[in-house]
Amino acid sequence: MSGTLVLVRHGQSEWNLKNLFTGWRDPGLTELGIQEAEAGGQALADYGIKFDIAFTSALSRAQKTCDIILNKVGQPSLETIRDEALNERDYGDLSGLNKDDARAKWGEEQVHVWRRSYDVPPPGGESLRDTGARVWPYYMTDILPRVLRGEKVLVAAHGNSLRALVMVLDRLSKEQILKLNLATGVPMVYKLNPDSTVASKEVLGDMSGAH
To answer: Which of 85, 103, 113, 140 lies most in the core, judged by the most C-beta atoms within 10 Å?
Structure first.
C-alpha cells in the first residue's frame, strides 16, 4: 500500500460570508472559518494520522487552515510547502465583486456560465480547466511522488483547486465535477495504490454543510 493523501478546503473566509468572488484575493478566515478548520483538524486527530509534509497555497486563508489543522494533530512545526499552483481559481474581473452585483452587470445566465462551466473563463480569469492545468502538473511532480513513497501528505487549499484534484482522483467527468461542491474544513482521506489510483476514500465529518 502506498501513502495517504488528505485534502481539506479552507474554512469560510470573510469574502465567502459577504458573497464576494474571491479568487486570488486574500481575505482572512471568519470566526466560523476558524471553527471549521479546528473541526477538520480534530477529525484528523481523532482519526490518528500523523503527516510527513503539508502543502498549501500562496493565500492566507488556506495557510491559516493548514496551520490550525497541524496544531490540532500535534504537528505545529511540520514542513509546509506553499505554492500558488494550489491557489483558488482566478476570477479575473469578477474578483471582489458581490455575486448579485455581477449578475446585475452581466446577467444571471452569463455569470452562471462563468461559475459553473468547465472551460469558459470569466473576463481576465481562469476556467476550472485552466485551474486544473496548473494544479495537475504540480500534483504529479511535487505531491504524488511523496504519496507513492508511502508518506502521509496534507493538502489544504481551495474549492476549485481541490475540485481539479478530486476530478482526477475520483475519475469524474466534466459534467460530474461541475456538480461537486466541497464542504469547508471537511477532510477527505485518500489511500492510493502503487499505480496512483485510489484504493479507498473516506470523508471525515458531516457533509450536510456542503455548499
So the answer is: 85
Residues annotated within a binding site: 9-16, 22-23, 61, 88-91, 99, 115-116, 159-160
For 3-35, write each residue's pLDDT tens digit: 999 999 999 999 988 999 999 999 999 999 999
Chain segment 105-149, per-residue pLDDT in tens: 999 999 999 988 899 999 999 999 999 999 999 999 999 999 999
Which residues define the annotated binding site for substrate? 9-16, 22-23, 61, 88-91, 99, 115-116, 159-160
On the 0-12 / 13-18 / 19+ scale of CB atoms within 10 A, 3 is middle
pTM, two decimals, is: 0.94
- Domains annotated for the chain, with CATH where assigned, are 4-209 (3.40.50.1240)
